[in-house]
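Translate structure to sequence.
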């Protein structure tokens, strides 16, 4: 416990000024799960991986990646922040320990996505609750835009096999 607090403190100091948020010590996150998130205002994913590739009535989407080449191929070339996050990930299929999940939502322009909580729903399954910040109440718009939350998940039990992402009352499941 003490070692975890020291590590979190060192990471907080080392990452001062970054837009990433550290969540590995949140009360709602299992202690054996390391999480980093990055909010992206827009759609950094190519067609076929993006929420824009789904039918109109589906507002929430999740995509997962186990290898760096797979993740890099899914990111648009003009997305340096997203590519930096991908490059910093030690992917499970490349000999590392992490997987990357992109949670997306079609919503109003003033909405931002924030990691709310993570819980285990099985031995190798996770439920990720994503909060919509910036507005109160129901969010409706005639001209929705894409909001993305990138999640780097490092589980001491091994990479998760399934992740359910919940945003604004809608869920999207992804098999990793």
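Result:
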């Amino acid at each position: 416990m003490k070692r975890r607090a020291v590590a979190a403190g060192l990471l907080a100091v080392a990452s001062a000024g970054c837009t990433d948020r550290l969540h590995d010590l949140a009360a709602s996150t299992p202690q054996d799960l390391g999480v980093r998130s990055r909010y992206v205002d827009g759609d950094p994913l190519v067609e076929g991986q993006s929420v824009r590739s789904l039918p109109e009535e589906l507002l929430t989407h999740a995509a997962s990646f186990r290898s760096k080449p797979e993740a890099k191929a899914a990111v648009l070339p003009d997305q340096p922040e997203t590519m930096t996050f991908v490059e910093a990930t030690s992917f499970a299929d490349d000999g590392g320990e992490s997987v990357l999940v992109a949670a997306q939502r079609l919503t109003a322009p003033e909405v931002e996505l924030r990691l709310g909580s993570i819980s285990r729903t099985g031995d190798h399954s996770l439920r990720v609750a994503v909060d919509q910040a910036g507005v109160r109440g129901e969010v409706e718009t005639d001209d929705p835009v894409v909001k993305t939350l990138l999640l780097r998940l490092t589980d001491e039990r091994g990479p998760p096999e399934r992740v359910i992402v919940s945003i604004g009352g809608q869920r999207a499941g992804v098999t990793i």
